[in-house]
């Protein structure tokens, strides 16, 4: 199973679609680097799939315990949670959004 981090805020505008965003507790490798909201750490990079350095950067990032970031919206989490509740006979109206986030992180594909 591939581990990743969910981010419930918008993807950075300067990171093109298709690039992988990484997060770690220490500086990591990528074509774009920044510091941001603490998730798995506050260091972020984005790697360009077309750049020949990317495989080396991503391997090194994994060695440094960096995790890829999956950006999701409140609507995506809510939609997933509604379906999860229906499939598991849970009253959706009784579920707090923070609990939806936790369940999403643990159970979504």
Topology (elements, then pairings):
Blueprint: E1 5-7, E2 20-24, E3 32-35, E4 43-47, H1 54-63, E5 67-71, H2 74-87, H3 97-107
Parallel strand pairs: 1-5
Antiparallel strand pairs: 2-4, 2-5, 3-4
What brief labels describe this structure?
5 strands; elongated; 32% helix; 2 domains; 109 residues
Please tell me about this protein's structure:
This protein has 109 residues and is an alpha+beta fold. It has 2 domains: 5-71, no CATH class; 74-107, no CATH class. Helix content is 32%, strand content 20%. It has a 5-stranded mixed sheet, with helices on one face. Helix 2 crosses helix 3 (97-107). It is elongated. The mean pLDDT is 87.
Short structural description:
This protein has 3 helices and 5 strands, in the order E-E-E-E-H-E-H-H. Strands 1-5-2-4-3 form a 5-stranded mixed β-sheet, covered by helices on one side.
Low-pLDDT stretches are: none
Compute the CA-based radius of gyration: 16 Å
Number of helices: 3
For the biggest β-sheet, the strand order reads: 1-5-2-4-3
Structural class: alpha+beta
H-E string: EEEEHEHH
- Give the tally of β-strands: 5
Strand content of the residues, in percent? 15-25%
The amount of helix comes to: 25-40%
> How is the biggest beta sheet arranged?
5 strands, mixed
Mean pLDDT: 87
Number of domains: 2
**End-to-end Cα distance:** 10 Å
Taken from the alpha-carbon principal axes, the silhouette is elongated
